[in-house]
């Protein structure tokens, strides 16, 4: 199997196609579940791409939907095979946000709002280590190292020579003021952030405290967009014990509009770079 197959994206595309076939048949997820003697939640998980889909699942669903074109069935079966392949992140064991990593790996662009921390794709190793240690105090040294390694590997998407991920980040001023690790760690982190912001495919804006109330007060979120028109945009909301993925057009649009307001209220690119540079100098004192 080709090494560039992304199982997360394959599951998502396959789930979208299965939902389309169900809707063409005019059936509800509950009706399909009753026919196959499975739970409705299983059908929902298959369609939203959060669960691996076996070839047997595809065969059974195609039977319920009366798909007569064997080429369609074979195409869906192949997608099911690809969806069960492991991505690079599986080599690190159980990663709590592996679905997000799969989406990020295949995304063409990413818009992020971070109210408290420097976003993971722009973190230095020292900052990431201090952050994980502080945020997860009961985590073993081995698990901390694993998480940091995964974070560093994710950053290959923005340093790739060809078609790097287009990244736009709005950082609340709190992310620059919160002391993570030591003053030296923070100075190096902000200097690195400043350096990366010079890349043509990376944009960083700072949302200063003085802007007051703003649409991002509810917390961090990210909007992922994909090159393939068949892949709808996704809003990612990170949780403590579980994450939320929004794919409905009106949900994505709402967060996209919020992001435009955040960008408008933030300092422009040059002002943001100066703000970051000044903050870095403060940590050097």
Structure description:
- The protein is of the alpha/beta class and 285 residues long.
- 52% of the residues lie in helices and 11% in strands.
- The protein has 13 helices and six strands.
- The chain has helices at residues 7-25, 29-36, 40-47, 55-64, 70-83, 98-106, 125-135, 141-154, 156-159, 173-177, 183-196, 249-265, 269-283; strands at residues 109-114, 166-172, 202-207, 221-225, 234-237, 244-246.
- A six-stranded mixed β-sheet has the order 3-2-1-4-5-6, sandwiched between helices.
- A hairpin with an 8-residue loop joins strand 4 (221-225) and strand 5.
- The longest helix is centred in the first third of the chain and has 19 residues, at 7-25.
- The protein is elongated, with a radius of gyration of 21 Å.
- Residues 18-72 form the HTH cro/C1-type domain.
- One of its GO terms (molecular function) is DNA binding.
- Pfam families: DUF5753, HTH_31.
Work out the strand percent.
Answer: 5-15%
Order of helices and strands, N to C?
A: HHHHHHEHHHEHHEEEEHH
Task: Return the structural class.
Answer: alpha/beta
- Main β sheet profile: 6 strands, mixed
* Contiguous runs where pLDDT drops below 50 for at least 5 residues: none
Number of DSSP E strands: 6
Shape: elongated
Radius of gyration: 21 Å
Average per-residue pLDDT, rounded, comes to: 88
Helix content: 40-55%
In DSSP terms (H or I, runs of 4 or more residues), the helix count works out at 13
Please give the order of strands in the largest beta sheet: 3-2-1-4-5-6
Distance between the termini: 54 Å
Protein name: Transcriptional regulator
Pfam family, one: HTH_31
GO molecular function: DNA binding
Organism: Streptomyces fuscichromogenes
């Amino acid at each position: 199997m080709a090494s560039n197959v992304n199982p997360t994206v394959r599951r998502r595309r396959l789930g979208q196609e299965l939902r389309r076939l169900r809707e063409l048949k005019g059936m509800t997820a509950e009706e399909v579940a009753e026919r196959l003697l499975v739970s409705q939640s299983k059908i929902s998980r298959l369609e939203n791409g959060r669960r691996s889909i076996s070839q047997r699942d595809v065969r059974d669903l195609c039977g319920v939907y009366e798909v007569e074109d064997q080429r369609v069935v074979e195409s869906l079966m192949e997608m099911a095979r690809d969806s069960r392949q492991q991505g690079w992140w599986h080599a690190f064991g159980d990663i709590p946000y592996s679905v997000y990593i799969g989406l990020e790996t295949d995304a063409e662009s990413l818009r992020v709002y971070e109210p408290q921390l420097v976003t993971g794709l722009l973190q230095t190793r020292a900052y990431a280590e201090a952050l994980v240690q502080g945020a997860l105090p009961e985590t073993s040294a081995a698990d901390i190292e694993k998480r940091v390694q995964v974070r560093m590997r994710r950053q290959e998407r923005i340093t790739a020579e060809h078609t790097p991920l287009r990244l736009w980040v709005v950082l609340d001023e709190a992310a620059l003021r919160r002391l993570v690790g030591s003053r030296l760690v923070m100075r190096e982190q902000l200097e690195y952030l400043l350096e990366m912001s010079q890349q043509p495919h990376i944009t960083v804006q700072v949302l200063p405290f003085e802007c007051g109330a703003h649409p991002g007060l509810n917390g961090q979120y990210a909007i992922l967009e994909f090159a393939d028109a068949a892949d709808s945009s996704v809003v990612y909301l990170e949780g403590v014990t579980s994450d939320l993925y929004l794919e409905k057009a009106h949900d994505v649009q709402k967060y996209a509009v919020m992001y435009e307001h955040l960008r408008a209220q933030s300092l422009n690119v040059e002002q943001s770079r100066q703000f970051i540079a000044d903050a870095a100098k403060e940590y050097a004192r």
